[in-house]
Amino acid sequence: MDFGAILDKYGLPVATAAFFIFQYVKQAADHKKDLKEIAVKAVQSIDANTEAMKDNAEQSNTVKPVLERNVTALNRVEGVLLGRGQNNDSGNGI
What is this structure's pTM? Predict the structure, then answer.
């Protein structure tokens, strides 16, 4: 059965449903394309940031110690948060 025959047999409700299905498929494809573009730009930004940090590290010996201190500080924060999660009486782990 072709679309014209279905439209003749069932009328406006089917035509409306077909329109909304078409719109949904089109929007989903556009959304997927947009997300792909965002992901590519994010990866490019991260790569550029990594290169800038490497360049900075080569020019200065202060970056490595700063990054090491950041890792140490984050490990301490993680330990504190894990300790709070174990001591929490509500049981939700926060």
Answer: 0.45
